[in-house]
């Protein structure tokens, strides 16, 4: 396993521990399902808001239905992954968090980029992109490799 270092050269001890990655793939899948269910539940009130907006705008607002899921999911990911816990509620439920390899905090932009890259890569490869985690030492997916992040168990 390669050593992750911060920008000043100090070693990231927890990221080098093998137990930081035990069960991460399974927990990551389960946390995704929980988060997906939460976002779908949050889409319900947004659906009603768009309905009212469509009536008030004589139908123009109903165009937002086409982007309802991203309209709800992107702020959800930005404020949870990019928040203080560096984890979505589903990730927290299963004891996971997103860490940057350079030791910096995950900000909302990284959280959104992480999610968008996951969805784009999944759409392009019909979901087979998740198989990458079987072959990387830290069980990283493509978006993790591109953004310099890793999903680990909480300490």
Structural commentary:
There is one protein chain. The model is unreliable at 1-10 (pLDDT under 50). The chain has six helices and two strands. The longest helix has 33 residues, at 24-56. It has one domain (13-153). A two-stranded antiparallel sheet has the order 1-2. It is elongated, with a radius of gyration of 18 Å. By secondary structure, it is mainly α.
Largest sheet: number of strands, sense, barrel closure: 2 strands, antiparallel
**Tally of helical segments:** 6
Which percent range describes the beta-strand content?
5-15%
**Main sheet: strand order:** 1-2
Give the tally of structural domains: 1
Distance between the termini: 19 Å
Question: Over all CA atoms, what is the radius of gyration?
Answer: 18 Å
Mean pLDDT: 89
Oligomer: single chain
Tertiary shape: elongated
**Strand-pairing-aware structural class:** mainly alpha
Number of strands: 2
Listing every helix as H and every strand as E from the N terminus to the C terminus, the arrangement reads HHHHEHHE
List keywords for this structure.
155 residues; mainly alpha; disordered N terminus
Topology:
Elements lengths: L12 H4 L7 H33 L11 H14 L7 H5 L2 E5 L7 H17 L17 H6 L1 E5 L2
Antiparallel strand pairs: 1-2
Helix pairs in contact: 2-3, 3-5
Quick structural summary:
This protein is mainly α and 155 residues long.
């Amino acid at each position: 396993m390669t050593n992750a270092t911060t920008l000043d050269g100090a070693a990231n001890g927890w990221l080098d521990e093998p137990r930081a990655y035990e069960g991460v793939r399974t927990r990551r899948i389960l946390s995704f399902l929980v988060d997906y269910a939460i976002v779908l539940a949050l889409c319900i009130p947004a659906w009603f808001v768009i309905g009212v907006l469509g009536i008030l705008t004589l139908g123009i607002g109903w165009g937002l239905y086409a982007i309802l899921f991203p309209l709800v999911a992107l702020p959800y990911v930005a404020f949870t992954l990019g928040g203080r816990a560096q984890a979505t509620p589903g990730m927290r439920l299963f004891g996971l968090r997103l860490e940057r390899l350079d030791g910096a905090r995950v900000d909302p932009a990284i959280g959104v980029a992480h999610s968008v890259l996951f969805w784009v890569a999944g759409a392009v490869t019909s979901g087979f992109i998740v198989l990458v985690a079987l072959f990387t030492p830290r069980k990283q997916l493509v978006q993790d490799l591109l953004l310099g992040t890793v999903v680990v168990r909480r300490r």
